[in-house]
Amino acid sequence: MRNFLVPYNLDPCSFSWFERISMTIILLNCVTLGMYEPCADSAACVTVRCRILEAFDHAIFVFFTVEMCIKVLAMGLVGKSTYLAETWNCLDMFIVITGSVSIYVAIYKVFSLSLSLIVGYSCIAVYCILLCLSGSC
């Protein structure tokens, strides 16, 4: 099943617009993370600003999940030159999986887990990006 989309010339990873959209969404995610106020935004999320940020957060999460699925289909999951062969993709998959667990916990109330866990992992991702941009990775 490796490279399922490549024989049909549908490899989205090679499209420059795909990368541009992904980077724009990452930038939007950084902006929305910066606008989040944990003390003012209670668990109820009743203000308009909080609801708008929550909607953006859900849309961004859906985008990252779809992006991961497309890349896995296009590149394959495990092996040489596949999705998990790149460190950034491993981090992306980790964030998507922890986000999925957090959403599952919030919906089914399995146990008490704050959504700030996902915010923490997103901050780690931003830190790693800045570290690599500075040439330290």
Describe the protein's architecture and organization.
The structure is a single chain. The protein has 137 residues and is mainly α. The chain has one domain (6-133): Four Helix Bundle (Hemerythrin (Met), subunit A) (Up-down Bundle). It is built from four helices and no strands.
SSE topology:
Layout: H1 16-35, H2 48-75, H3 87-108, H4 116-133
Helix pairs in contact: 1-2, 2-3, 3-4
| CATH fold annotation | Four Helix Bundle (Hemerythrin (Met), subunit A)
Total separate domains: 1
Question: Mean pLDDT score, rounded?
Answer: 75
Helices and strands, in order, run as HHHH
Second CATH tier, the architecture: Up-down Bundle
| Discrete helix count | 4
Helix proportion:
55-70%
Estimated share of beta-strand residues: under 5%
Largest sheet: none
Q: Rounded to an integer, what's the Rg over CA atoms?
A: 17 Å
User: What structural class do you assign from the helix and strand content?
Assistant: mainly alpha
Q: How many strand units? A: 0
State the CATH class: Mainly Alpha
Low-confidence segments: none
